[in-house]
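Fig. S4 source data, part A: sequence.
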Amino acid sequence: MTGPFTPGGTVSPNAFPCGGCGARVEFAPGTAAMRCPYCGYEQQISHGDRQIQEHALAELGSLPRKPVAQLAAYVYVCQRCAAQTQSNDTATLCQFCGSPLVLDPQASGQIMPEAVLPFMVDRNGVRESLRKWINSRWFAPNALKKVSEAESTKGTYVPHWTYDSQTYSSYSGARGEHYYVTETFTNSEGRTETRQVQKTRWYPVSGQVSRFFDDVLVPGNTTNVPPAKVDALAPWPLPEAAPFAPQYMAGFTSLRYDVEPETGLDEAKRRMSSVIHDDCRRDIGGDEQRVDGVNTNYTALTFKLMLLPIWIACYLYGGKTWQILVNGRTGEVHGERPYSRLKIFLFALACLAVLVVVLYLWLHGHSTTTSTHPTTTHHR
């Protein structure tokens, strides 16, 4: 364990020596153990009697933390080869011997993680998920298949803030109810006809709705991975999260957050707001709804920092770097990929050919029907 962190200073990371051969152990995805990549020795991860705790928002003011803008890079001193590695990550690998470097969270200068969702998908699982994803991309270049073996694939824990709150909302708006009237009109042939036209009567309404929000997720790092891409990997099996333990980080990268919890709360309220608006519309009822204003009171606000597992794969194609993210728990894939102009052109050509054939058959059938129409002769 290390002492308090001084920005710009060095830190001694947690060491995870192998009890079998003395090399190193790393967290083994899909288990609750650390495993030596050389001799296979396993060591179980124990949490003791620790439970995941929610923290009252009022605690933020008393936490010993430094603003994100004041944090310098960490300088790790590898306990195996004594080399120094500079990184902004709270867990990484020694750039010289590959040993896991995991920072003591108390020395990070930031709020400590409360929970972690450990990796379930290993590297072989990532390859399988990528293979299935690639095969489903019809218009991707054939060369894209090489991404399943991307050398840059990295298992990374991405920090997320979670927020709980009981909400009480008062709203005002209007309920629309449909009715129909009969209108008279003149058609294209000059004949007078009638039709039913839908109208809407609006009635002013107001009311109250309430909802408890549990674990509203807000990405805590926006520099390394775009939040929209991370959101696309949802849903996450959050009930399967474990109390934080540094052993889960061994052999993986763990990013430090660059979104302060107060800023994350603003985003959480925005996400809650869209759900509350849906609740208001359901409460209004009728055929149509209009919500003019909502006033929400947030009570019993709590938060925690949770680490979520993501495999990040980057590959170069056409002179551009493309990024693919894989949910390290479920195998869900979301990523960027190039399009093959040739495949798109051939598909469009095939569609055009089908359209021409269908049009020809229709015209030919219509012509045949016309030419074979029977003629009736009347005799006296």
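Fig. S4 source data, part B ends here. Confidence is low (pLDDT under 50) at residues 1-8, 375-380.
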